[in-house]
Amino acid sequence: MTQESSAYPYEPEFSFKKIIADRKKDIKYLLKFKTRFLLAVIIGIVSGAAAAWYWPVTYTSRLTFIIEDSKASGGSLLAGLAGQFGFDMGGMMGGTSGVLAGENVMALLKSESMIKKTLLTPFPGKKNYSLADQYADSYKLKPKWAKYTKSSSPIMFPVNDNNYTRLQDSLLQDMILNISENSLSIGKPDKKLGFFELNVTTRNEDLSQLFSLRIIEKATEFYLYTKTKAQRINVNRLQTRADSIGRLLNRKTYTTSAANRILLDANPAYPTANVRVELEQRDKMVLQTIYGEIIKNLEISRTLLIQETPTFQTVDSPDLPLKKNQVKYPKGIVMGIVIAVVLYSLYLLAFRKS
Q1: Residue 181 phi/psi, 5° resolution?
Q2: SS3 assignment, position 324
Q3: 193: left (phi over 0), alpha (psi -120 to 50) or beta
Q4: DSSP 122
Q5: What is the β-pairing status of strands 184-187 and 195-202?
Q6: Which of 133, 188, 208, 210 could form a disulfide with 61 if both were Cys (CB 3.0 to 4.6 A apart)?
């Protein structure tokens, strides 16, 4: 029996009454240090006020948009009914399936290429000054970058300049990563709806507004180009073919007219005088038939291109003034007091003597 007791020690029963009693003892113990807690409160007030003073002010630009696929809208009812019975009709109806469908739009907006293209757009009011330069100035990064170069001039990111150095590319990648992780967020306020919400938060109000508008513009161009690429290639191919056949048909019309004029002056004694006219008319009729079919297919392809083109529509644009994010003094002081008191209480309870 003794060995069993040592192998399986007794565990006391769980009791709320005991827990409450222990907490009362802790409170009585902490009340012995009222003077020290008063000092902790003062430290918390000073720390909270200092945090509110030094905490950087940021501005949030909010933009909402929708993407409507005209090709998918026609089959949405049938796809919804089929979905109730466990069938996926999205691919069969030619809906929003594909690389840029649904949730992938959010990944597109946060992609490195979209952020980079947006950063390298011009900032208004300054010559050859990009959004990347404004971002670096807003976060005071250029003085920190001075140690990476021997030149006295600051590192710049000029617009429409593809000959960036290795250092410029490296610093640009750092900014892109920071924006993707800390400044840019994209989501759907309601999962049942097709609305997307884009939020951009930076330390410069104009930068936040411009960045949100520019990245939507770049994403729209890329989205529409990718969604309609195959159909546009087909339209361009048919247009080129139609132009070529049209030029041949024009030349054949002139040669046919010349052959008819020669026939008027031909000697009726020669029975083969009208052979050339018949050949020219036959070739013209063939070209007319081919040209008509190409024009018909071209118009059909243009109609399909219009149906394939989705609508990337902005619903709410960010207007100045933007939402201002800052830690106010009352909030900072209260948070400082709470943190100081809690930390000092934990310290006393952790190192008190039994």
Answers
A1: -90, -35
A2: strand
A3: beta
A4: B
A5: antiparallel
A6: 208
